[in-house]
């Protein structure tokens, strides 16, 4: 019984530290058997210690039940490395072109287009065509995005804080 409780606490603490995490990431990071994780996630949901939300192919888990739908959507984007980096780059560099984003993220133009399509459909970015170019800008509350990043992803915040310092002053 003690091992089960320890695993449940580890899973809960991981979800608290990584809001919007999904099952396979929990498995990969905590190195527990899939069945063990599923059992504890079920128990944590039943006791209302966590909340799960299906997002595309993933079921994402949150321990902070005070988060609204919009905050969970932001955290979902922030938990995905490429899309998070693109959004943060756009906060720092409004109206960046698709080419600039591809170069920054070190991904192909078609991959950039795919990510920007997802971000646009989710309401995070707004594309603007000028001639043969597409420029993007972040929609929504930039301060809220940064506050959620700082609160829920402090290691990522530390990496980006210097680059974003002039926006916060």
Word description of this protein:
The chain is an alpha+beta fold and 169 residues long. The protein folds into two domains: 2-66, Arc Repressor Mutant, subunit A (Orthogonal Bundle), CATH 1.10.10; 67-169, Arc Repressor Mutant, subunit A, CATH 1.10.10. The chain has helices at 2-17, 23-30, 34-46, 69-78, 81-92, 98-105, 109-121, 142-152, 154-168, and strands spanning 21-22, 51-55, 58-62, 96-97, 125-130, 133-138. A three-stranded antiparallel β-sheet has the order 1-3-2. Strand 5 (125-130) and strand 6 (133-138) form a beta hairpin. Helix 1 (2-17) crosses helix 3 (34-46). The protein is elongated, with a radius of gyration of 18 Å. The mean pLDDT is 86.
Taking pLDDT < 50 over at least 5 consecutive residues as the criterion, the unreliable ranges are none
Order of SSEs: HEHHEEHHEHHEEHH
CATH architectural designation of the largest domain: Orthogonal Bundle
Q: Say which CATH homologous superfamily of the largest domain is assigned.
A: Winged helix-like DNA-binding domain superfamily/Winged helix DNA-binding domain
What best-fitting shape do the alpha-carbon axes yield? Answer: elongated
Structural class: alpha+beta
Annotation field: number of helices: 9
Count of discrete domains: 2
- What share of the residues lie within helices? 55-70%
The share of residues in extended strands comes to 15-25%
CATH topology of the largest domain: Arc Repressor Mutant, subunit A
State the end-to-end distance: 51 Å
Q: How many distinct beta strands?
A: 6
Strand order of the largest sheet: 1-3-2
Rg: 18 Å
Which whole number gives the mean pLDDT? 86
Taking the sheet with the most strands, its summary is: 3 strands, antiparallel
- CATH class label of the largest domain: Mainly Alpha
